Protein 1
Amino acid sequence: MLDAAPARVEVTLPKATHRSAPPGVVVRRRDLHAIDLVEHRGLLVADGPLAALETAITLPDGSAFLDRVLQRHMPFLELYDCYCRNLGRRGWRQASRLIIAAADRADSAAERILKGLLREAGITGWVLGHPFGPHLIDLAFPDLRVAVEVDGWAWHVDVDRFRTDRRKGNALTRAGWTLLRFTWHDLTGRPTEVVADIRHALEAAA
């Protein structure tokens, strides 16, 4: 919670809204996507994900604020989709930095899910963060030269990371490694197939 209420409050409303602002409130009108609006007491206001992002970019501890939002109120996908819908709006450069930080933590969660799947399946011999030239393989079976990469949320948001991961993948393939790539949705929506794909790659490489 904030220690004190600000002296001035800025509210974003769709351009079609003509309601007068109450004392102490500054209204800024602009076009908003319908999906980012919700009606509250007869007034259209920003829905949760947009409100969270716009609040985060105004706070000195915006990253910590987003962490609490993601832990208690909404999944990362909703926040990320809202961020993408509103690219180019004021303050979105800071929103991009906050999204990347939150995505890193979401990627760590994906890594934990992958480790859990392998342990539950009794698959051993893997190493996390295995060095490969200037790169680190997300999860590797070095003896069999099988690499498993998780294309997490940060991979989608950070252009530099996207390019680095592509270069790493190409280098692994040139060096004769078997490369498997999975997304968050693979790990959470089709875990049985993920384990089967990894097991098949290991058997083929043995």
Protein 2
Amino acid sequence: MEWKSFGDNISIAGKPREVRSLKLPDALGNFRRCRVTTTWDLDHYGFTRTPAVGQLAKDREGKIGAVVMGKSGGYLKVGRFPNRQTFLFVPLNSLSQKVKNGLLKNEGLELFTEGNLLFARQRE
């Protein structure tokens, strides 16, 4: 697997996949599904029809999750939250089953849990 630098602490690999929703923890720690889209206008608070994209991402500790970002350099709009961001590092169980399977297909990674979060690591 060929990793490319993505900022100071994260490397990305693999083919991007479309992401339309994420399961994120609320204030009580319960996972709730949130819609995600790409937006280009910082003054527009609504959703667009353009989905976000996700790729496998590895942090400095070697944990592999996913980076979800706006498509074609856009911003990421998550759920009812008014702010937009450039990307979000999430555990693998935040993704839908179809997206997660597409990212992990033929990669030969070992899955593990950390609390109630699912990550992967490269086999040695």
Protein 3
Amino acid sequence: MRHCAAGEQVPILVYEAGEALRFDEVSIRIGLRGVVNVMRELGMLTLKRKPPKKSVILRSISWLRAPSSGIARMLSKLGDMVSKGDVLAHVGDAGGKGEQPLDF
């Protein structure tokens, strides 16, 4: 690969790690992360990094109980910011009938 790239005057970056004839999962993960970072820096990939979530200090907690037993169909994910009145899930039977909202 290096010989062909040099013959075409194409710059190449080769990552070598681990042992011969073996796959080293840690080295593969590190190498993949590095290659993707280089490609992003060169503009070959878009920056898909999500901005970090804003930190929140909780002064109290409370429990929220479902209005009835059943299967919950979640509308919010773990870590989502919610406000009073937001519907977090719908609780109903296995057929999806008789659903009741679970609001905050």
Protein 4
Amino acid sequence: MYGVCLRYTDDKDEAQDILQNGFIKVFENIETFKATGSLEGWIRRIMVNTALNHYRQDKASRLKVDLDSVDYMLEGSDNVGGELDAKELLKVIQTLPAGFRAVFNMFAIEGYSHKEIAEQLNISEGTSKSQYSRARAYLQKLLTDEKKSKVENIFYS
């Protein structure tokens, strides 16, 4: 569950706070768990909601995405080949601006629809789609740059 929390923030201490608050909610509400689904899935949903609540508390500074500040990184994006291990992918996702990261995690990893994301984050469905698209392009650009950097290090070291 720590990994789930860590995907929603770039700060390990903040992820630990979210995790702790999430488990407090789990223990306070354990009697509401109905064994119709998996316990892990129920806990995961609580962790995701706790992370989202954490960002809602400071929405003005956390979820506001300055699109102009990242637009330059989106130009000339290429498809990225190769494979990353989970730790490398987590590090790359953590570099996303907070709004991009929240939408990307909710849609691509947690499986929320854009309508559900819009309701959870109090944004329009179009904004959710746009932020997801921009997050993907941002990640592709970062991964392409990282790949180029690794090749240059091999040839020019």
